[in-house]
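Complex 711.
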Amino acid sequence: MANQAKHHRTVTGLVLGALMMFGFGFALVPLYDVFCEITGLNGKVDLVQAEPSTFIDHSRQVKLQMVAVNNETMPWRFRPVSSMVELAPGEMHQTAYLARNLTEGFMIAQAVPSVSPSEAAPYLEKINCFCFERQPLKGQEEKEMPLVVSISPELPEHIHTITLSYTLFDITPEQKAELAGQGRSSL
Amino acid sequence: MNTSVAVSHHHGPASGISRWLFTTNHKDIGTLYLWFSFLMFLTGGCMALLIRAELFQPGLQLIQPDFFNQMTTMHGLIMVFGAVMPAFVGLANWMIPLMVGAPDMALPRMNNWSFWILPFAFAMMISTLFMDGGAPNFGWTFYAPLSTTYAPPSVTFFIFAVHMMGISSIMGAINIIATILNLRAPGMTMMKLPLFVWTWLITAFLLIAVMPVLAGVVTMMLMDIHFGTSFFDAAGGGDPVLFQHVFWFFGHPEVYIMILPAFGIVSEIIPTFARKKLFGYASMVYATASIAVLSFVVWAHHMFTVGLPLAGELFFMFATMLIAVPTGVKVFNWVATMFRGSMTFETPMLFALAFVVLFTIGGFSGLMLAIAPVDFQYHDTYFVVAHFHYVLVPGAVFAIMAGAYYWLPKWCGNYYNETMGKVHFWCNFIGVNITFFPMHFIGLAGMPRRIPDYALQFADFNAIATVGAFIFGFSQLIFLYNVISCIRNSKPASDRVWEGSHGLEWTVASPAPYHSFSEPPQVK
Ligand SMILES: [Cu+2]
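Predicted structure with copper (II) ion bound:
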């Protein structure tokens, strides 16, 4: 029957459309990251090591505030060595965050950075950051975690203050699962 | 061919339960959808009444906060996916083949499947109420990480229920598109299609575009919960705001899925009782299509407060306001259709008129919410609750009621009781406004949504809203009684049913025979 052939064509097209949209839903994940990376919109900073800049713009000073946040019930003591510094764009700044595992047991933490205003995110360059790695600490152990940052001289003129915030997450259970061979399939 | 085969091919419905289990007849399946959606409407309605009863007075009287959250979540999910959407699919099943002159839906066996998935999906979802840790309690929008890291264990069942509903909707949409594109009677060109058919065609395309995205987002949740991925988990490099983007990419077109068929129903009813042709048919079609297209670029108006950049806020604000233009065209056309018409006010017309007025109020409060700077005050308050209930209850639900009364005589061959219909309408109209109008004020005054207890200054308006909710809720029993007595025995209806009716569906007998348009009609 002619109708059956017509239905077949219509249905095939529509099913393909639905499958494409299912794929599109997942494609939104990398698209979102790419979009945010290009525009720096969500204050997310990529966890990539930056090259130190050679040019220093001495004509202006930018305030860099450093903030430490513990996620939910994360029991560590976590704070920056100094909470504010004034920097010339291009100048390299070396500082650190202090972490102390207040529990008796071994734990692993991961710090996730965020920059505000989000417009400044692409211009904050981390030459070395403790957030590049997971931080394992034994019970009651304390550690100074190094951070080397600079602000790109391309930073827009109207930005005078940048806040760099680290949130510390407890990732111990996931790590144990990985050791047990069950694995986290993505980071 | 021997005669018994020929007879069995043209006989009426099978008898007993197997008629309903194995039916591939579009009228049977439409009936199943409609009864199912009414059952879900009552279920979700009972939950709403429990919510309103708790909010009658400040303080905690009846239920605990966690159970309150389960009620708001389940109420939303059941009403959206169980009541409104299946009701529209039921109306589509019944009416689209009759309106385009087709003998049945294009894919009758798949039609049976798309219905029978639903009772299983909702049984699974409602069963979560009895599980350890209770039902989902994170709101019908199930934002991560509430629905992942902090979710009760029953969330997995919720995810599978959503998957099943999604598959059901997509199959239903495919069927509707295939029917409209391939089974139109000779002479029934696209620009002659009744508006209900047009709006459903566009709705079906929206369903196919966004239900898979919903399936995608719940799949990501499932993977975050059980397979250690970090789509929405910041510790692992994910982003909870991403959830909201993906969800609302589905969610905004979803609200049009729940309103475009309503536009279609009202566009059928108003011309009938104004005894005039619909004003601006072509502009109605184009307005519907442009609303559908715009619905894909406005999703972040639900997210003004998550920290969008200024450019984003402005874009989504203006894009959202732009939708008011085609919507305004529609309202204008309905009013113009009534202008100097010889109107009568039977129950379907009353519901349709209430739809036009009250949906417009909901549209206006939507316009207020679209203004990004003031949305910071309205966000997550009862003002939002008032807004979306105005577009969904006297919007979508009233249109469904209007359609049910309008086509009921065609379905069962008898007129319903007109007086009882009018009583039902006035109880609904008064009940809805008493329930939801005060919510605008308590919202503007700052009462947050989804809370079981509230500050004392909101007490009076909450008590009023609760009274309205009970009027609205219990008046649905009048409707139920009216429908049952209409099916059983009542004044027989003529084929045309209404004096001003027009279109192919009124050319078949009342009640519509089990098989209609086996020979396609000629449309001039
Ligand atoms: Cu929206």
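The CA atoms of residues 216 and 246 of chain B lie 9 Å apart.
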